[in-house]
Structures
1.
Amino acid sequence: MDKKTIIIIALAAALVMAFGVMGISLAYFAGKSSAIQQPTAVAEVNATSEAQTGSSASVEQLGAKMEMTDSKPASELPVEKVDEIVVEETSTEVVEEIGPYPYEKVSALVVGTNISGPSMSELKYAESDAERFAKVIEKTYGFMPTLLQGEKATKAGISNELKRQLDSLKPDEDFIFYFAGHGHTIEIGKDERYGVLLPYDAAGFDLDAQDQIDAALTIQSIVESLKSSKGRHLMAIFDSCYSGWVTKVEGGSDSLSLDGKLPYESMKLPSVHVMAAGKAEELAVENDDLKGGALTATVCEVLAEGRMRKFPSLFFNVKDRLESNEALIQGLSGAAATPQFRSFRQNGGAFSFIAPSSYKTWEIARSKSMLVDGETVTVSDDYLDEYFDEVPEKYSEDVTEDEVSEYLEIFAEADKSEEPVEVPEEKVDAWEARASMGDSEAMVLLTELLGRSSDERDRNRAFSHAFSAFDTKADSGKFALGRAYSNGYGVEKDESHGEKLIKESGFEEWLNLYKQIDDLNSDVQALKGDGTPEGKLNAAQNIANKAGPALKAAGGFMKNLANKIPFLKDPTTVVTKALEDSLIDVVAANPDYDSAIKRLEKAQERVTKAKKLDDEYKSLINEGIEEVLVALRAKDQDLSKELLSAFIASSSPTEEEPVP
């Protein structure tokens, strides 16, 4: 049950207590142990069709004892050729018990290309970045990277190898995809755009858009291939310009669902996590001091420390370190690239990086026991806390409606007094953190804050946040973009378009309803508590006085929701007919609520059984009807009339949703 559902239910409960209405129901719609695998050094794969179908490099099983040693230079290593795949082997020496290998298998496809077709300038560090990343995950963690660089990083080479590795994954095996190189945005017409990664043989910009897309790797297709894989943990790191297009892939969430789960618990659950160098409109940056891309250099720095970290924690550390070195990541546009993160499975799963030196600690954490003086002792989670990174609150705590309402009022008052708004630095830092996770409410506040700045770069960042919010498909996102257009935050001012977006979002109505419910809350708690009869009576009177404004706010909110149900635009549907007939029953001198209720309940059943409607539509319609039923069961004639009229009005044709 989401937050808005709980709040609406609380409102219904309050009204029941105030008016003695019984039987009201309310539903709300809105919006791993095995022998150690000693991996080989980086396996470099030829991008030929024979190589793509070759077998994987063999892996030596060493049992539960090993010591990771530094790799020798490639020229000194023995080379074995297996089905066109060149394998460079490192020597190992068994010296001490370090604990069971915590993975079944962790493979990776690491891609880097400085050249991306005839139209892009040559990069300096993409190929060395890929090699750096491959080495750190192999040397520090013992993973199995396959490296494609330069002319081997073709569209076919990357696609075939990605498919081969993903198809070969077993349910308890993990995979990492890494790309360093050029990224690009390709437009087809006015309304269709694609974020792509450009391989070595990318098409020139002189070709038409579709040919360019066909010669590239769309970010969406890569993420979708990870989502559809049967592997356990699927991860991607995109170090390229415009890699933030990952935020536009459907199914991404700003919620990690990691609360209360230690790494060994999250490791059991599957995950799909993606990290990008910046937002969809931002450039990734190479830096001569770092001798590489800012994102990759920082990722490798964090990983080389060998601390046990979940993949999300890797992102938190990388983003925070980059922000403390903002001069290193200034894009050509003058705005700092802001790394992005998305989760595509919301079940609390997360991959953990575990270095061999931590295998024994991991096993203790997993089994929650250890040997002390020859006896098995149970180990508490608290004992192990110091070994694992916590999820910082600024990344895990949603920006609430209360916070949005509070600061919107602060901004409005500041506009009247023409005084600057002072927001605590830690608050802004939290908004930025949540925005990087996809929290549209955080983006609303950043849009308002940065949009008022006299610095052009801040205003441009405001519009960037507004557009990113819009891409989340949330009502608050459309509201943010509307505010940006209405006030000219980093974009040419267009009040009519902005107001249209704001009205369509319904976000203001929701905030108003939320505020009214919040006002009722203390009285509801007093009424439910153990206070005196006089106190309860006073609380009930307060609820009665506040219920009117709350119902009015609910009516305005529901009217907006009614306009968002496309199914009701067909006046011949059973639902529309039921709504029209129910309205006739309600407006009568002696309203027939029972008939209207039975009619709409039957309409709900028809919708539920409809085979041509997908589950999303069914849920949307039935939850909307339920709101009308609430008013009917409460025998609230005015609210019933208002909601029914709004639903019927939504049956008429409306303008297409505007494209910003």
Note: The longest strand covers residues 106-112.
2.
Amino acid sequence: MDFTHAILRSHVDLATFASLVLLGLIFCQLVIRSSQVGGSLPRRNVIATLLVGFATVGATYGFSRLYEHHQRHVLEGVLAAASSDLRDTATRDGLDLTQLPKIAERWMQAFPSLARLQVQSVPATGKGTILFDTGIDLNGDSKHDREAEAPFLPGTETDVPVRAEKPAAGGLAPYFQRFGGKPFIHLTEFISSSNAGVTHLILDFRAGSWSAPVAAARIVSLLSGICIITLLLARPCLTCIHEAELQRRAKVEESLQKAREAADAQSRKKGELLAAMTYEIRTPLTAIMGFSRVLLDSQLDGVQQRHVETIVSAGDRLASLLNDILDLTKIEEGKLSLEQIDYSPIAVINDVIDVMTSHATKKGLTLRLETPLRESFLTRGDPSRLRQVVQRLVDNAVKYTERGAVTVRAVWRPSVENRAEGILTLSVADTGVGISANRLPKLLESLQAPDSKSAQFTGPGLSLVMVKRLVDLMEGKIEIQSTINLGTTVTLQLPCSPKSTVTQPGDPSATRPPMLASKRALVVDDQALNREIVRLMLQRLGFNAETASSGEEAVRLARVQSYDIIFLDLDMPGLDGFATCAQLRGLGGDYRLIPIVAVTGVTEKGTRERCLVAGMSEYLTKPVYAPALKSTIGAVLPSDTPPRV
């Protein structure tokens, strides 16, 4: 019996299907329970799966039994009809054997699945005798396949047992038999009996003619059931897996969010710490730098002069370092923004040159500005950041140049597409030691330091990194060209839209802000040293300066005395700078319009905007330098304002 018939008869396929259904239920239950979501397979899915499984098994088995019954009925009819034909040829002496070949040929043509017809006489005792045999037709080509089994010749004795005697109550008892390695349905039917023995008709049908449709139908039915059950079980499993993945992603995102918040909090704490540190350092640094410059302008001998110059130089570098560290931190946190106000870039450059001239002169260098522009050339942007950039470049040039000159050039060129816009090109050229070519590409990418083992210049440290970041914020470009022992040129290209026409050399309208004199100023600061140094700077500019140690004292003085300008520290105990400004403006009269300049060590984003909203005119950062003080006064206090009395 072949595999197909073994399955059909023993129902291995149904047992396999049922096992797969149970295994599927167990597997899905384990998948759901082991997932992060947990729980169990929904009861409705379990019930639906079992119902579909039972329905599939029942339908498959019922169809097979129905088809088998139908085929049995057909075969019974065929066998009965063939037996009737043979009985019709019987005579008193037995079957007419001469008619058997015609009968066999007719029946085999009528039923292509009929592979063999045999008539056999079985005596009561002894071996049976073959009366007629067509031989086996394995392939259905109406030809005897001799290689499978040779036909029995008439009169041949056989030991093959006959499987069915004359049925007591009629019916059919088929069984499977193999010929030539192929299965056949073997049927026997009683024909007649005599003293010589019992005559039987034996028919062999190819089993594939009816087993193949049954097998195909069972396969389709079982596969359909598997597909339906897979859908029933897969949906909750996939839903569970999807929810587990969503929960995993949510946990990952939550952990990332917590890590981000922790990093942001740490960054804020670092920024706050740096801001607090720089503020605390700026306050005494203002006094150190201011009194050092006062000493520098007094009567000193040579040694004292060098000592004070060293203090001033070191203080300037310390202040620059503090600014760079704080600004780099703000850039990394994305908190550094640029102001957008009208200013003169040439005035900014002149202020830087004024500050750096003493350093250059001390080293025997010439520091000069070459430009066709004048201070009446106005543009919109952030003057403090431009001052920071230019000062860093000039400071580096002076620092690494031993002889020769440092030249600052400024040129504005209109855009080809729009004449109202253009590029401001600034360059700082020195005749110093230069930078090696292999270090130029990395110079602006990371912090560099001078080589302690040689005199060759290898990098300006934090300064150029800060310059690069600020130029990027200004949407500009920076380029460095250098030759060893010949010098270095740093070129900036900044977008620039002028607010007035470019003046040419000799233009009488190009004048510096006038020196203001005989005007009254009030310096308000809780630190005595800071009050004193700002007072001395104002006196050098010609002001009659007074001081107040608190906001309350400033308000009392303002009630009895008029001032042309007030410098107000923001961070004071009691009445702070903002509250003091509000009370001063509330005095009415001239105090609603007089310039009030904030002086603070806080450089956080939005500080200037807060000061302007509070009613102040401008603000200065500590340490206060004389050029910046002078420039601020020129911006907020008109030169034609009559002095207060």
Note: The chain is about 50% helix and 20% strand.
3.
Amino acid sequence: MKRLFFIFIMFASMSANGQWVQTNGIFGGGSIGSIAVVGNNVYAGTCRDSPSFGCLFRSTNNGFNWTKTALDSQYVMSFAINGEYIFAGTNRYGVYLSTNNGLNWSQTELNNQSIYSLSSNGNNIYAGTWDSGVYFSTNNGLSWSQTAMNSTAIYSLAVRGNNIFAGTWGQGLYHSTDNGSSWTKVALNINFIYSLAINGNFIFAGSSNGLFMSTNNGLSWTQTTLNNESIWSLTVYGNTIYAGAETGGVYISTNNGILWTQSPLNDKFVRSIAVNNNWVYAGSRAFYLSSNYGSSWEVTGFNNKIVIDFEAFGDNIFAATSYNYDSSSLYISYNNGATWTEATLHNTKVTTVAKLGNIICAGTAGDGVFISTNNGINWSQTALNYAYVKSLTGSGNNILAGVLTQQSGPGSLIYSSNNGVNWASTTLFNNDVYSLAVKGNLVFAGTTGNGVYRSTDNGLTWTQTVLDKFANSITISGNTIYAGCFSGVGYSGGVYLSTDDGISWTQTALNNRPVNSVVAKENNIIAGTDDGIYLSTNNGLTWTQKNQGFNPAQRILSLLISNNYVLAGTLGYSVWRRELSEIVGVQNLSTETPSVFSLSQNYPNPFNPMTKINFEIPKSSGVKITVFDMTGKEVAVLVNETLQAGTYQTDWDASAFPSGVYFYRIQAEDYSKTKKMMLVR
């Protein structure tokens, strides 16, 4: 009798282990107040949420991709370069210095001022401060001295030889010829000087009244033809001058400011601008770059927005992003969240998105509700045009809107039965409604101070349930209702569930942290918290952290399950995506401790296209289960994490693979076992 021995070689992994991946296209996260070019590096200083908080980014490929520098919690408003020395002027915390291309930064002695402008001349560095005038350093920032200009808000600086020009906020333009010992106000009768640039004998001053030019060292000034815009930024390359305007984007002059042409980037507020040979960089609410001297532009950015809500609508996914210091707060994806583009609802503070039949609704912070009937291409404002709308949903023919407390009145839930033409009150008033979910005629509302309410008539009348927690998020899967709750003084956070339509509630094992968002599919519950993602595959009995790919763990504000993907909206890192099957990966069937490691035969077998694999581990172990094809090539990693003792199950979806024999192998501690399975298509 002949025996056939099958021998195969396990090749090195051909595919990355499952993890969260940051998606692309939700750019911004703050106004870009400064740009600098040092060799092959481009630096961009942003503010986020408020002018007191920001981040400095660096790109090594002309602005196409960005990474955070170590100066990741400061709003950098200005730069100066002196050889290998890079100076960064920050809001409130003075001047920082790097000597290794921005990898590390140290705070200089000038450490308690807001630095709106920096300029260098040899070893002299000049810093324009808010309310404290001009400082200078003659030793590359080791020590600083205040000039005679010591009580004025300096917004712009330019230096040529012994001449220092200082543009102020409200007091015009000043000139010093003795290194700041004395200053003279120049004849330019404009109060607000936002930007300065020097090109040979030409001095340019960007102001609230357009661009002015001097050819005699500032003794006299002429207004250029760029006279109908506030000019916030200037840079010079050869005889070409680039001007960043408040409403008209980038203007270009190739003859020292005599004539100006508006570039195709013509509708942005350009706060900062820089040039490097043929590359031009413009900072607005996103980062724009041109590789052809400004003839055409493309947008890139930092993927550092705050994403607060999602909604799937047909093949499209909408994402509402934080609106502070950002130009657009609604984005749309046509490919399951892999990439994003700005929606046409521009410059509107979108806080929440919901669907009702063939209508998509967008709630805003102060402008009420907008609706679109053509998949987000066009939008119209409803009669609710004044309110801060925190939550939206549809029930029956009603659009339900949770309005937050404002000066105009207390928070309440209101509804429209005619697509927003008219709005009326429900019985749920004097409450800020943060979350809404629908199950048939039942509607559930999560409030800040009085817990979860329940309606049985499509949201018209309401009764309070026994769950009295601050419910940030509510979701429904089958007959189970899940509430993700915030934690604070007097109330605990975590996930609660109800299996009797909200009559009674049970706290799950995730009970010690605030839950910002919760989604569910079948028995799988995913919770977004301040320290990342948690998963339960047994209706909340146990939870496992699922932060692979996050570094560090992200604060998750919003979640969505769409097709086989989970999207996570974060605080300041835009949208991340991961396949649901990767997250679920392993289901804990029993927490009883097995006596030995074991790997069961998959079932069904043969299979098409799904099969299940059970395994047991007797102690906490790092477990990896891998699938190989007939050649020994790794085709899938089903499990790759540390698991506690117990009995587990994992699934393999072989939809993307051809029929044939496959092998699956478990590795845990010193235990290794391989089994064969058959895919029949």
Note: The radius of gyration is 30 Å.
4.
Amino acid sequence: MTTSNRSAYMRLWRVVLPHWIVLLVTLVLIVAGAGLDMLTPYLYKVVIDAHITVHVARGLGAIVALLTGAIIVRGLLRTGVFYALSVLGQHASHDLRLALHTHLLSRNAAFYDKNQVGRLMSTVTTDVDNVSQMFTNGVITFVVDVFTLVSIVATMLFLSVKLTIMTLLVLPMLLPTFAWSQRLMRRSFRRVGDAQGNLSAYMVERLTGLTLVQVYNRERATVDECGAISAESRDAAQASLRASMTTYPVTDAAAWVAAALLLGYVGVAHSIASAGLVVAFVEYANRFYTPIANLAQKLVVSQSGIVGCERVFDVLDSGMEDAPPVAPMSLEKPASAENAIELRGVKFSYRPDEPILRGLDLSVAKGTSVAVVGATGAGKSTLVRLLARHYEAQAGEVVLNGREVRQMPIEELRRQLTIVAQDVFIFAGSIADNIRIGRPSATREDIELALHRVGGTRLLERPGGIDAEISERGSNMSAGELQLISFARALVRDSDVLVLDEATANVDPETEAVIESALATLFTGRTSLIIAHRLATVRRADRIVVVAEGRIAEQGTRDELLAAGGLYAQLEGELSASSSAT
């Protein structure tokens, strides 16, 4: 067993130990079943030597009844072991899925930049299922077989040392086969796991962008690409199958060779054993080599499960935690009691040598609204991501309500912050369910009032009202309706700080007029940071900040910036011309 195998098994046992009662019941059933496995061949010997060969009928009925009962109970115990193992495997897979889900929810955006969602889904589903199968048909049953083998050898040695040696002579020929097949299967299952992860990632991406695939007539090319990825999984699975199939005929041949050696040895040494002892040993030999033959299948399941374990634990060990704890730090200078948001000398880059923010300084006074504008790629939305700690600032300080955000518990940070993004994500469920996400205790009256205040009256007039069902990703609603839901969601949550990240970019002019009216309601009584291109939204802000090349190029009121004739004046002119052209 390799070091990585041992590590995976040890960590897996820690997952199982909380369910020690099921594990204990399983072990008791295993021991009882192994005892009956030892008893029945011995009863064959008694029937033959004490009754059949000497023609004695007295007591035969009791032995036969005992033998029949032992066989029936042995079958029941095996059923119990299988059921207990299934329960144990399901408990383990449930715990692993919850652990993965909890872990994935705590990762930051940088983690998902480096890990495809489809591959992660493959780990949560396929890999965890393989771990469950390893419990049901692998690890514990492997222990059962080992316990059975040891018990059989001990019983045979008790009955006859010489016949035991003859029975086990062929065992060494199996070891090289098992070692070879295990190495090959481990490589093959790792290839299968990687290919399945790639396939899941590919399918998620293509189905998410299905409209684009269809518009550009990429269906055939997509099928071909999917087929190539699937073929890799198929070829790897076939390689592991060939390795596992090799062990079956070798083990089966070993069992027959052992029986032949046993009979040949007894035939030469006539006085070494009675007929009953020979039959018992043939039966013991069969029961010894049958578990060894089963080990081939268990190796397949175990190797698949071990690879699944490694992939699961690789995810659980991954870094880039969302809002990780950091060492206590003091602000380089005291935070202003008047400012809700302060960024001081903030630097950040998504990739090395490609800085996005280059020592940016920004302050937003409490109860005011500040619009941030600039060219695409200037770093506007990055400000929002750093403020919410979806990414970590690489230098400088990000302060919210007087506290460095890296010193705040993530729950507290995000309770004070509500972000309304350009791409509104809607979960399948009712309108009410989606609005009360930020405050589960919100009543129907709270939700209906919020929709009224943001101009979402038409949503209340839909059949079903706020109980109307929304399809996955809001496919049965317009972009404007989805944005109104996101505004109502923000209003119901009622955070101290509101951030609009291009929130009005994807709506039609009619809906924009409704939304612009709703913004006055949203801005009232709270601090607002607005990332926007729409002139109507920008003009509503108390102050406008222009970002260029990762720094603040200019800031002031709209009138001040227009009078200065700088970047903002140029930008507004371009936006006005664009609006007129459309």
Note: The chain has a mean pLDDT of 79.
